[in-house]
Amino acid sequence: MEDVCDGCKLASENSNHCFWTCKFAREMWESSKLALPFEPDRDCSFKDIMWGLLMEEDSTSEMVAKVTTCAWALWGNQNEVRLDGQRKSRLTLFQKAVQFLEEYYAVLGTDTSTCTPRPQQSTWAPPQGLVYKLNVDGAIFSDLKAMGFGAIIRDEKGAVVAALSRKFHASLGAAEAEAKAAEMGLQFAKDIGVRDIILEGDSLNVYRALQGLSTPPPSVDAVILGVQTACSEFRYVEFSHIRHEGNRPAHLLAKYVKGIDDYCTWIEEFPCFLEHALIHDVNAIPVN
Fold first, then answer.
1. Is the CB of residue 87 less than 8 Å from the CB of residue 81?
2. Are 139 and 239 part of one and the same domain?
3. Which residues lie closer than 8 Å to 44 by C-beta, 6 or more apart?
């Protein structure tokens, strides 16, 4: 068969297999010590995997560059083998990728030792004026083949206007969960009559996609477009990103879903398990 991997001869040669699941690819990743912080789904594309990597808050541009360049080295050697070339060792491929990056950075005059993650907001901040802040988060429950979504709406004083925990029965990835959380949060705000909001989540890539700053992977493209379209039904919508530690109430609401059948809502009140997280957020608000 033409689509069988030229390396292991055991599976179809799609991008997922070529870059991650083929035994030759796995050997190189083990040698590089750049193992992904998650296990790629068998059906996800290279773009989906890279998007998942970018969603990791502690990921640096240098790490993403190394993973991408190693994948490029794998792909190049795969084509060489197909044209009767020699299969290179895992260490040789990794060294080739590192050398290429070093030469690239040398041309740019970039010192990779000083590369640090871009500072991001880590403390929740209240909205200003008559706008409400909607924080959302998604959680995956692989054992239940389900996802949980949490949404909480607060005013300029940090008081809870409404909160939601909702279960969604589907086996989806992290990117889909975060995008669906934004979609369901926006619908929740609409249902309770809130029309001026700041939609905030801890997925930097969902934020960038909603802002139109980057192209989302195909798996969430329709959801992102749906959220952007739904914004036209509000008077005011702004997108905001916050680090995971600043989004704890929404995260707890998403985790709470594991113990319920469908959904729970709270209007002008909040569940007791949110009390400490909410007090922490309010105490962190600067006093003018």
1. yes
2. yes
3. 16, 52, 173, 219
